Structures are given as C-alpha cells and as structure tokens.
Amino acid sequence: MADEPKDPAAQDVKAAEFPDLSGAGVVPPGKPNLDLVRDIQVVLTVELGRTDMVIHDILELTPGKVIELDRLAGEPLDILVNGTLLARGEVVVVDENFGVRLTSIVDPAERAAAIRGGGDDKK
User: Fold this and answer.
1) Measured distance CA(87)–CA(80) in Å, rounded
2) Cα torsion for 111, 112, 113, 117, to the nearest 10°?
3) Which of 42, 68, 71, 82 has the fewest CB atoms lying closer than 10 Å?
4) Is the pLDDT of residue 6 over 80?
C-alpha cells in the first residue's frame, strides 16, 4: 500500500487563511459618521399625559368632553422616539401652529436603562 500513487488533488490542500478581525466593530476615535443613519425614519411622539379609563367611560366620550390627564398644567411634556423617552419639552405656538420646545435631553444612561427595561420609563 505504500507504493500506491497519492491523489494529486490531496497534495494541493492548504489551511484556510482568514483576515484578522480582532478590531471589528470597534469605533475608531474621533467623530462618528452620522451620515449612515440620517435617512432612517423614526416615530416621534409628544405625550401630554396619560390616564386610565374603563371601556364604559370611553364609550361615553362625546365632543367637548374633558379627559383629565396625570400631568399638571405647565409640567414638561415627554418626547419619545420609537417609544423611548428622549427629551422633555414645553408647548409653544409658532405662526398659529403648535410646536414643542426642548427643555432637557434625557441622560444617556437613563435612556439605556429604559431600553433594557422595556422602554417604559414614562410617567
């Protein structure tokens, strides 16, 4: 059996060579490239307040009915992006249209905790 000819294709087999990926996913120091995400659409929600209602009360709603919310007049509004609290603000009027002026941005650590906790850090 030692005299049998070797398969010529088996002689050309080499170990695979892979590029070094140890630095993959690491953001290089400096300014991040925000151009990659500028065109991504998100849902921006401005929340005046919340309330709990039973279906019976909802069915009795009519035009002119006032719904009491869990916020006092003048309290900051919550500004959410895709359901996650991003900032707080106040209502303003601009050329007869309503707008929101940002008064504070939520701390990134608080935002990250809200994402890990299901995003329900709203009042």
Assistant:
1) 7
2) 100
3) 68
4) no
Q: Report the CATH number that the domain containing residue 111 is assigned in CATH.
A: 2.30.330.10
How far apart, in whole angstroms, are the C-alpha atoms of residue 107 and residue 114?
A: 11
Q: How many distinct structural domains can be found in the chain?
A: 1
Q: What amino acid is encoded at 50 in this protein? A: R
Question: Which regions of the chain does DSSP assign to beta strands (E)?
Answer: 44-47, 77-81, 84-94, 97-105
User: What are 25-46's pLDDT values in tens digits?
Assistant: 676 677 777 888 889 999 999 9
Q: Are 121 and 110 in contact (CB under 8 A)?
A: yes
d(CA 110, CA 39): 26
* For residue 122, pLDDT beyond 60: no
d(CA 22, CA 98): 51
